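Hi Y.,

Following your request, here is the sequence exactly as I used it, all 394 residues.
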Amino acid sequence: MPAKAPSTKWDSSEPTKYGAVEVEVFDMYRDALGFVEYRDRAGNVTVDTLIYIADQLNFYVDSLNIDYIEFSPNKIVDSTYTTKIKIKNVSKKEIHIQELFILEKESMFTLSKGAEELPLTLGPDEEHEIEITYKPTKDDYTSFDKLIVYTDCLEFIISMVGSTKKPKIEVNDIDFGDILVGTKTTRNENNSVVSLMITNNGTADLHITGYHFDPPQDSINGPFFYEPYPISDTVSLETPWRIRPGSQKTVRYIYFLPSEQKTYETKLYFISNAVDSIIDPNRKDYAVIKGTGIQDNTHIEYGIGGNTYSLLPISPNPFNGTELTINYSLGQSGDVNINIYNTAGELVKEVVNNSETAGEYSKTVNISDLVSGTYIITMKSRAYETQQQLMIVK
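Below is the corresponding structure, written out as tokens. Let me know if you'd prefer a different format.
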């Protein structure tokens, strides 16, 4: 388009000594080629070629050309993460970088390296390395910002994103209730196998790397024990448990062995990557485990003719024979159930399952098919419930 000519009358007889032509480049980020044709009244034609070479910058992370900068999820609050970025001149000319900065004033992103050398000149195919640091300050929060690069002619904008996620550990409590003194069991007073569950209610993977009792428990006398099953499920730094968000982990097995008549209590703590309690006061990374030791007569119900309910101790115990004799008595007539379970809570022998009158009884059961190990004998009749531990040795 003509502009700034000495006369707007292009057919004037007066000679034109100078003139100007302005052209517009529609996409400043791409190279352009144009032609301007001049024609006088005599039909003479002059053609000028116009060449526009754009400033062109590419951004790379580990040789990968990127359109945005992303700090992957699962970042931890108040931790520092950095990434190195190379700015490369992919133009055919020198580019002069005048400014380089993060857009937001109070940002979780900082330009930690590369701006101190400005202004700088990059020849074709030359690179300049910068470093972006991300330090999140909020949980479950996604941060957005922009890296701005100004050259002599153009502005380049690279979006940045970072997000924080964290695991949240919750462990349920266990109450064994009343358990006979001297009985080592994984079952509560209702004969149900106790269940310890670790739940991840957070937004990142929970990694369990260890555990400890507080107060500590004796490896032989307990009274509380954690015995991993299977043994390969033992947790450590080398073999951590990984619990995904919204998932649970069942911990097998927790045992209780009361040695006297009293109530016992401890806490089983799990070591994990969950944020510490100073930052997250709602964290519950332990199970409160408790139980009460009782003697046989605690659940005795007196019946007709002075008879009492009882399950007499197995003798000898440990037992190494094939025919096991179980002695018991009923205080009143009624249904009675006597069973033998393994430590996994599986029924292995049904000894008695019928209705009997009040009195004393002796039942013999063949246990030749049972392997060496610990078993639980349970007895139920009316309101009476009891159990005792049996050790089989072969």
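Residues 1-7, 297-305 have pLDDT under 50 and may be disordered.

Thanks again,
Q.
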